[in-house]
Amino acid sequence: MKGRVTLLTLLLLLASSVTAYGAVGLLSQTTTCSHCGTLGAVHGSGVLRQSGTGVTYGTIGQGTIAILDRSNDGVVAYSVAGWAHHWTKNGWAYFSGKGLSYLVKTSWTVRINGSWGISTTTRAHGWGYIKGTGKWSLNGAGGINTGNWPSWPTAGRSFTLSS
Cα–Cα distance between 19 and 2 in angstroms, integer? Predict the structure, then answer.
């Protein structure tokens, strides 16, 4: 029940007027990571891949999310809602559909391919890759106003999540 309440709270936060990056303040209180970086991405379409230790959550208007739980602790540390199709392959859990929302904790790799509506908030230590259209902020670049964030790189860019 507690996990459902937490996920519901996070989804309501994303659906509210709070920007994806602004929600990182909440994450800083719920994760302990002295070397973590932050990533915020909104209104995206394209590819977003992240691998790290920490937490990431968000929404996908339409697309597919693949999650690999790398914690090896026997506990499923992710939740995905709104999917129309779900399958597993080689340790990966895949979810596709419209109106997806997700929360992933501990150590993970997440791959998102979306035709529209990719929004994410991450506080983790790791790396990633972003390619497409939308706005994004790495480690607070552009401030809290998503209108000041740079555009997603159309040619693609790798990044590091660390402080």
Answer: 24
